[in-house]
Specification:
The chain is an alpha/beta fold and about 375 residues long. It contains 14 helices and 13 strands. The longest helix is centred in the last third of the chain and has 22 residues.
């Protein structure tokens, strides 16, 4: 048994809240990270076991072959695709090296801003408190500051809200004559109601100033394999991103997974349907918490504003872990008004979601008594 630098549950919380993974080693229920718990099927792991010697002992394939594997999966030509060691690698290349001036609506996934050099990223506030995106205002601000990259995440993280497809197309068209690329991060798109009708992947050739980013970790439940990709019909932009990728950026296990995936398309679709059912049920249960504002999710997590009578989000998050061994994310590190009032809860199984809601009610109610 590994030894860690904590002895009490409070010390364990302090340790865990400083980590970026490896949670499975520490015996708690993770409602913070955003997984598909129903994929991959066991047969994928059996294939890994059967191939483990070859996978470990041999070099994996490089970018052209990897792009072909993703292309087969999404019915796109390989030249439109760049495969990353997770979407995070591609974000680092675009935000950190290609973009001169990037604009991103907030609150959002922090990595786009974090990866940009100082002074190169401008944050654009979503409408408060609906957290909807006014694409006309975003386009006007992007043009005003001469941004060369605009990022939108849909469904957004942490709000779990989808941006209408027509709005994104409108935004791309507004930016087209201003030498500005639109990055559309669709990492959670597989969890929406009709993903095939909502994604822009099938229409990418109509918008040469658009690129779609996709982290496969969330939807495919493979956070440890680190696979993401970019899809664009803009060959110059694809070439620029490809230049930033090392020759072997994807390991053999990730390559093997991409080779196996076409055999499990139906299992994947069914797994996403189950995630949607669980997420919708979690939303309904959270709506029963008196005074809490719960935003209807389009992805596999729920964004909430704590009741006014409750203690702050960091306090509630810590107490939930210390008392119930359940970990959620508070949003104090996000750019939004009253950020210490907001939490983000990842949906897990129905049983785990029920326990989470009961535990959260217990912490909020006990905190209310302390305030009184």
């Amino acid at each position: 048994m590994e030894q860690y630098d904590y002895e009490t549950q409070t010390q364990k919380y302090e340790f865990i809240s400083g980590q970026h993974g490896g949670y499975y080693r520490h015996d708690f229920t993770d409602h913070a990270y955003l997984y598909n718990l129903y994929f991959p099927p066991d047969a994928v792991f059996t294939s890994f076991k059967n191939q483990i010697r070859n996978i470990v002992l041999n070099y994996p394939v490089a970018q052209p072959a990897l792009a072909g594997l993703i292309g087969k999966l999404i019915s796109q030509p390989a030249e439109r695709i760049v495969v990353g060691n997770g979407a995070a690698e591609l974000i680092k290349i675009v935000s950190g090296h290609i973009s001169r001036k990037l604009i991103v609506p907030v609150p959002s996934f922090n990595e786009y801003a974090n990866a940009a050099p100082s002074g190169r990223c401008v944050e654009f506030a979503l409408e408060f408190s609906s957290f909807s995106l006014d694409v006309d205002k975003l386009a006007a601000e992007a043009i005003r500051i001469k941004a060369d990259v605009v990022v939108v995440v849909t469904p957004n993280n942490p709000t779990s809200m989808l941006i209408p497809k027509s709005d994104i197309i409108h935004l791309a068209q507004k930016l087209a004559s201003h030498d500005c690329m639109l990055i559309v991060d669709e990492s959670f798109m597989d969890f929406v109601q009709n993903p095939n009708l909502t994604t822009l992947e099938y229409e990418i050739e109509r918008y040469p100033n658009m690129a779609i980013f996709k982290s496969m970790s969330k939807a495919y439940g493979i956070c440890g394999l680190r696979i993401g990709y970019m899809l664009t019909a803009n060959s110059a932009f694809a070439k620029a991103v490809r230049k930033g990728v090392p020759i072997w950026n994807i390991n053999g296990f990730a390559e093997e997974f991409l080779r196996l995936l076409p055999d499990y398309r139906q299992e994947f679709v069914e797994s996403c349907k189950q995630v949607r059912i669980d997420s919708d049920n979690l939303y309904k249960k959270l709506c029963a918490v008196q005074g809490m504002i719960v935003y209807k999710p389009d992805a596999n997590f729920v964004f909430c504003r704590l009741p006014d009578y409750s203690q702050s989000a960091p306090v509630v998050t810590r107490k939930l872990f210390v008392k119930h061994n359940i970990y959620i994310k508070h949003c104090q590190g996000k750019t939004l008004p009253d950020s210490d009032r907001y939490i983000r809860i990842a949906s897990r199984t129905e049983t785990e979601n029920c326990k989470l809601v009961e535990a959260l009610m217990d912490i909020i109610d006990s905190g209310k008594k302390e305030i009184l």
